[in-house]
Input
Amino acid sequence: MVNESPDTRPHRRIRPTRRGRLLLLIAAVLVAGLAAAVLVPLLTREPKTAEQARSLVIPEGWRASQVYMATDKALGQTVGTTKKAVATADLPLPAEAKGNPEGYLFPATYPVTSRTTPKSLLRYMVDTARSRFGADHITAGAQRNNVTVYQTVTIASIVQAEADTAPDMGKVARVIHNRLDRGMPLQMDSTLNYALNRSTLDTSTGDTKTDSPYNSYALKGLPPTPIGNPGEQAMVAAISPTPGPWLYFVTVAPGDTRFTDDYAEQQRNVAEFNRNRRGSGTG
Output
């Protein structure tokens, strides 16, 4: 605050004349009328309400084809619209992906409004995946396992598809790493299911002869891309697999997955699995 010296000179009061008082009164009426004219429309205008966002849930393990269909439905688009949008969406994918977003459509709940487009939603999913998969602990884990981050996402996608329970994820990841380290084919039913665009527990001898780069019975190494979109737990399992010598596993019953490094024991476990399937009428 600034302190000023008071003016000690006497002040003269100015009194308006009758005519002046009349002019002031007229001016006041005009100003009041103008204010009312401006105020009324403001008060009577309909208030704008924010659009209520809807939610699109992408579960862990969904394949890109499932994400595309769900996105089309959520946005009211014709079937195939989101899949076509991939080509022009300019997605920030790693070079190894070669434009294929499989594995990078991160499982989460996404807000959807009338302004959401297939391209914007795809970018949101991929940006989320790049943010999560680009974390320092993921990069360090991939280097520790002598694989790239993209290959780690591929391993995590197989773990997501194969593990019967969350605690089994680390063991499944260990089987994958052990087989890769020994130069053994992975022999994972989930990769064949991806090749054949199906989801089943039954794999025939004929299936294992399928001509596909995703046939991990016939080919060694990882498939060329992820086979689905893994979540956080599967990624953690892929970078930090449970220590163990296992080379085989089979889920003989819900919640009962057997891991072993002995082929004869694996054969006995598979026989028990088949008996359980026949007994339940699903075999």
User: Anything to note?
Assistant: The chain has a mean pLDDT of 86.
